[in-house]
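The methods section describes the discrete structure representation at length, but only in general terms. What matters is that the chain and its backbone geometry are given together, residue for residue. For illustration, here is how one protein appears when written out as sequence plus structure tokens:
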Amino acid sequence: MSISPPPAAAESRRVFRFALFLFVLASLYLAWPWLSGQVTIPWDSKAHFQPQLSFLAHALHSGQSPFWTPNVFAGMPQVADPQSLIFSPPYLLLAALDPAPSFQEADAVAFAMLTLGGIGWMLYFRDRGWRAAGGLVVALAFAYGGSAAWRIQHTGQILSLSWFPLAFWALSRALDRGSFLWGALAGLFAALMVLGRDQIAWLFVLTLTFFVIWRLFSPPEGDSRGFFARLGRMFKPLLGGLVVGIAVAGPPLLWTIALAQQSNRAEITLEGAMRGSLHPGSLLTALVANLYDVHGPQSAFWGPPSPGWGETGLYIARNMGEVYFGALPFLALVGLGFGRLWAFARPMRFFSAAMLAMAIYAFGKYTPVFAALFDVPGANLFRRPADATFPLCVFASVVGGYCVARFIDAPPDKKARNIALALVGALYAVALGVAFAKGRLGDAWPALGFSLFCAALSVAALLAARRWRDAPALGVFLIGAVLTFDLSLNNAPNQSTALPPQTYDALREGTQNETIVFLKQKLAENAEPDRRDRVELAGIDFHWPNAGLTHGFDMDLGYNPIRLTTFVDVTHANDHVAIPEQRVFSPAFPSYKSPMANLFGLRWIATGVPIEQIDPSLKPGDLPLVKQTADAYLYENANALPRVLAPGRAIATDFTAIEAKGGMPDIDYRRFVLLDRADCAARPELDCAPDIAAASASGAEAGTAKIMRYDNTLVDVEAVAPAQGGFLVLNDVWQDWQAAYVDGRPAPILRANLMFRAIRLGPGPHRVRFRFEPFRGFANFLPKGWSLPGLRNPPRG
């Protein structure tokens, strides 16, 4: 049984173009429930990425920079956030074209990217001379099978996934031709993939790296050049890729690394990562899509991890274990790839090795080598090895597609057929045995029966394509039609991938949601020259916390796994406040009725349950209930302070002690500002009072301040300091990427009242400008003593 590949089949461009046409047509059909607006991609796609997209569009169409947002967490550096979509060309283009991107438009971009990735695999198959039918199988399985289908709500990972086939195709061409330009194009696609800055991008960067090494030591058949000749030929394409890749991905990566140093994102432990492992039993879903009833309600799911399966110690969602990428490519992979050993033929060895490596990594704690793999640079940044199902399904699809292409030209082999039947039959027996062992045989029968039906259709299509190999377009049509039918039902829209658009009405542009309309109305009514009140949306529903990004109002909290350490140290805020239990308080911010709540300017609080269930310390009447809507209870904090203050005196305080133990003083913050003792000691001219009593005895006065302009990255304030001088306080989060200018001259920004910004002012009127200058984030990467041109603002303190 030879595993050497036969000569590549020569097919006309017309057949390839026909396969492309069928793939695009199939893509429209498979994505139509979303494109038509019947359903929308749910969960993170709407709760996190849709508001980010809306904010980006609003910024561009209002002439503002999207590099900083005041709308969540008292301010966030969007330029460094991998999930902000600023550096995603398709979403950036959508935001530039449409000031109010709709759910359908956002979903269409996700499916367009998956379709583009599928075309990348078809181009790669074309370059290798393999039949178009095989390329079509890979494209459909890649775009609408496996993790791409079941985890499409993870927009960032979908983008990283979609760029990889194009990067791989361009890199392969570059190495084949020794071309600098093709290398540069590969570098561009790889950089766009890397800009996702997620685990999928990391795994694919490793894949591309090892592919180059593979090509060096195991060149394609027919390449008789020596090792050093191959190495020399690789220089130009790799140089092109490196130059373009660094130019495109370098600055965003540096910003993200700089943000990581100032953020809460802790290093993932080995034990924590192991909880995100893929259970080996999940691989059975590659054969029987709905084996564990993942299509049904959460309570019906019985696969790992679930109570119906038993204790696993895993912490992953049920859709993360779904890896169905089509009966046809799976049967080809198992029956032909392993049965006839075609998976180990020279053209497939790299893909098979990559598939095995991704499976081992995805299994995590179920493999003895995961602890060693966790020491690979970058591995400890990610908490779920199960995310490796994305590339695992990709490489399985490629091997399956290759086997389809080869099968069409292969003569019948009775022995090979029997081996394939035995292998597939054994897998069905395992699935049947698992269902029986878990007492779910009755539940599993429909899924097993439909799997057998799809398998029979797939085998019939393969046999027909081989029989009519001289009419390749017919074979392409039969195989494409069967696989499309299969994926349309087995990976049909479900609770994990599609929900009614009205579910997310609160995130629609121009929504008439009663809660959102009320809050926007009240914010407008209470607008004053010195005010920019904040809102909190807590315990309402999963998609609510980032609503401020969509509707342009500021919130004290939000939804993002990344928050500035300065903010987290003061608030102890979680990444989410979807349920009441996720709204936690801290020693420095112990209640909605506290000095810190007032400093935040937290005027309006909307909660999904009565507020006393979230903050039991509240007494009757502390925060009056203003309105109750279908979604929330709405409360007003009338003591919320303005966004800008002009206190006359500073008080030296131990910020670290207050963050750890509490004791935020209840003083008049219009007249006094808290500064850290270290800053006061280093800057005698600040004239800090040693304590509250000494400050009060000095009879400090309050100046005045009003906001003249408030943009995302630029805040202009007119302030009049008291006769003895004083400070301007801007109650936005402090970060050293911000710069300040007083009457046109640079001034240091002090960290005030634990986490906000303050500027020292002399007596009388002043014009103060705060400006976000993101290139300050690169300062830590410069050699000691170096500075960036134009960044003259001295450091704080």
Notes: Residues 509-636 form one domain. The first strand starts at residue 534 and ends at 538. The chain has 26 helices and 16 strands. Residues 791-797 have pLDDT under 50 and may be disordered.
